[in-house]
Amino acid sequence: MSKHITITQAEGTWVVRAGGAVLGESSDALELVEGDMAPVIYFPRSDIGMAFLERTDHSTHCPHKGDASYFSIMSKSTTYENAAWSYEDPSEDVARIKDHLAFYQQDGVTVEQV
């Protein structure tokens, strides 16, 4: 594991909501801490309603995690552009986040422990 990144099992049950709808709930989420940034919760894809997500062309590269693919969240009232991301082929040091999704918290999108 990179000294810069730690990944642990997130305690309890976590939920992600967008536009008031529950997109997913998981007791198998992971918590990733990178440097001095705020922790990020990664949800197993199997616990997310993927029908609400649409893959976009946007991508980014992290020297520690690899290439991230992005998804927009489609709700009844709005589209949250590039609001979720996934490392589909992550670096070996962070392989645990493969097949997981993380979400940008913003007005209308929340990630919280329940």
UniProtKB/TrEMBL annotation:
InterPro entries: DUF427, DUF427_sf
Residue intervals of the DUF427 domain: 15-105
Domain of life: Bacteria
Protein's recorded name: DUF427 domain-containing protein
Organism for this UniProt entry: Pseudoponticoccus marisrubri
